[in-house]
Amino acid sequence: MASTENLNQLEPTFMYTQLFKEILLDIEYGHKAIQDLATCCRDVFAGNSIELQLINEFERDYHSQKAIWWYTRECFTYKMLNHALRIMDADIIINMGFFLRDVHQQIQQLYEQQISSYRRKTFEVYRGQGLMESDFEKLQKAKGGLMSFNNFLSTSKDKEVSVEFAQRASTEPNKVGIFFIMSIDPCLKSTPFASIKEVSYFKEEEEVLFSMHTVFRVNAIKQMGSMTQLYQVELELTSDDDQQLRLLTDRIREEAGGTGWHRLGKLLLTTGQFNKAEELYSVLLEQTSDESEKAYYYSQLGYAKDHQGDYEKAIWYYEQGLEINQKTLPTNQPYLATAYNSIGNVYKNMADYSKAVSFYEKALSFHEKALEIKQKTLPSNHPDLATSYNNIGNVYKNMADYSKAVSFYEKALSFHEKSLEIEQKTLPSNHPSLAISYNNIGLVYDSMEEYSKALSYYEKALEIKQKTLPSSHPSLATSFNNIGWVHRSMKDYSKALPYYERALDIYQHALPPTHPNIKDVKESIEIVEKENIKNS
């Protein structure tokens, strides 16, 4: 379930789960998909003879027109799929991708057959369920705003049965019973829904099934009678065509590019789900014999491992990818510079500065070659030139050659500003690319010790990230850390502290306890706290 402070926006995770769904619906599944799912389910339900029997039946008899029948059977299919969608378990969702697609498509077919029978009249459906108290608090904050259900949503035309469900749930510890009344306008462009009486396993139930990511407006929340743990929540189906959300989703969809699995991997990395991205890329690596694909997967695995703080593994993956690319790519290929730079960054994270410098030097020569090519082939205001100047500036900074770094940063700055100007004309105002540009300009000013300018750009970057990233994403921690650092450099220690604390909170949730970022932020907090005591 998703909601947000801004009442007309859905929280960022909705945007990503929406794309996740699109990617899965788009992927071509091989004939082995049913068999692979059955094998995976046998592992999960080992020792459960009833479920194992059903898994054998599923493998033998399943076809796409029986998708809803299997979904409503409340056996392993229903349990695993809804649990995986709720917690975004990539591994299970990928295995069940074909089933998820079949259920969605069958709902869509029924929706198209049934839509005229509603005669454009609004009607009500009901749902009774339990919510953890913490989730109920979020729901209360969303009153007047939007919320979405990330899984398939079962509702009923039978009011009494739904109230009973809610009452039963309200007696469970730490749970609130919720009786949802959902008002449905069939004329809206929304997620498809259908009466599934004819195709359900339970034909006697008056069930209406909604596909994933149905969006509702929360109209009212009322306590039911004297029961403190039982609430009636009135929802209204709303269009999933929110203008701002669509602009952003379209752009991110475009950038994810590539094939279904590539897009899925990038999406997992973007949302900070490094373990899940690692699982996916490892499977793809095993399945491919194409050398350039292998190099790409190794590089993505290196990126995931670097962000997990497993540096030895990160270097190993990056080097495997680099080795393949050295054999297959021309020597002036900018990708080689990126690979050397990535390896240099990992050594820097490990505090092995001499090795880091040797890789940065290699990266530098490739970045310089790349710049030379770009200067000949690209228009003089092309944003890629800013990237090259910035890369060279970063390498000099990493090598502690600050005077050279500053001269490249100044060039990078003028290109980043040009690049920003282009982006401001072509992108929605809260697009993640703008956050990267603001951050880059902030970093340049920071490196040049122009802290008040750096602060202004860091704050702009943070504002966009807060609108477009999940609240636990490591990139937000980086922004909080940058702002904390600038306040500290300006000797404004009381302002620095809360930013460092927020950075630490995210890092501790997102990174392994030994990660250097955690150590660095803790040290910064210690320094700032001492200064605050001194100045009090």
TrEMBL record:
Protein family according to the UniProt entry: Belongs to the Arg-specific ADP-ribosyltransferase family.
SMART domains per record: TPR (SM00028)
Domain of life: Eukaryota
Organism: Adineta steineri
Name used for this protein in its record: NAD(P)(+)--arginine ADP-ribosyltransferase
Repeat (TPR) residue spans along the chain: 295-328, 337-370, 386-419, 435-468, 477-510
Reactions this protein catalyses: L-arginyl-[protein] + NAD(+) = N(omega)-(ADP-D-ribosyl)-L-arginyl-[protein] + nicotinamide + H(+)
GO molecular function, one term: nucleotidyltransferase activity
Broad enzyme group: transferase
EC number: 2.4.2.31
Keywords: Glycosyltransferase, NAD, NADP, Nucleotidyltransferase, Repeat, TPR repeat, Transferase
